[in-house]
Specification:
By secondary structure, the chain is mainly α. The chain has one domain: nmb1532 protein domain like (Four Helix Bundle (Hemerythrin (Met), subunit A), Up-down Bundle). The chain is built from five helices and no strands. α1 runs antiparallel to α2, α2 runs antiparallel to α3 and α2 packs parallel to α4.
């Protein structure tokens, strides 16, 4: 899909997010490591990616995209998705429930599915709407802001 260069930083993040989502989504497939070790590795990877990448990505979108389209259904969905992913991540991070390793792996799988759905929504619906709605000058300004951080 051709993307306006102003949105390249966010789309680039999406590529990495999809890789994580797919890894988590297919975490219920048999692996050579023990279930306990598999869950530990996947949980640690999710924590690393969420804390170092996803949280920053969400912040960029909320800071630079949301104000451009107040009261827009697609932007409202983006914000709602971010909140749901953040809450689910916090639950996984804190392990507030007493999950078995099998249940924990199922939660990681579900998080992967939610993240993938969110990213595909942004790429297929939200970003095209932004590209169609903003002028070239507005897109250029947006790109400059996104590339500064």
């Amino acid at each position: 899909m051709k993307r306006h260069k102003s949105l390249f930083p966010l789309s680039h993040d999406h590529q990495h997010g999809l890789a994580l989502a797919l890894k988590l989504k297919y975490s219920n497939q048999p692996l050579s490591s023990s279930l306990k070790e598999e869950v530990r590795i996947l949980r640690n990877e999710l924590i690393d990616k969420f804390e170092n990448d996803l949280r920053k990505h969400f912040s960029l979108e909320e800071t630079y995209l949301a104000p451009l389209f107040p009261n827009n259904d697609l932007l409202s969905r983006m914000l709602d998705d971010h909140k749901k992913l953040e809450e689910f991540y916090t639950k996984i991070y804190k392990k507030t429930d007493k999950w078995s390793f099998r249940q924990f792996r199922e939660k990681l799988n579900l998080f992967g599915k939610l993240l993938e759905t969110h990213i595909r929504f942004e790429e297929k619906e939200l970003f095209p709407m932004i590209e169609e709605s903003l002028t070239e000058e507005q897109l250029k300004t947006l790109g400059e802001k996104l590339n500064k951080v």
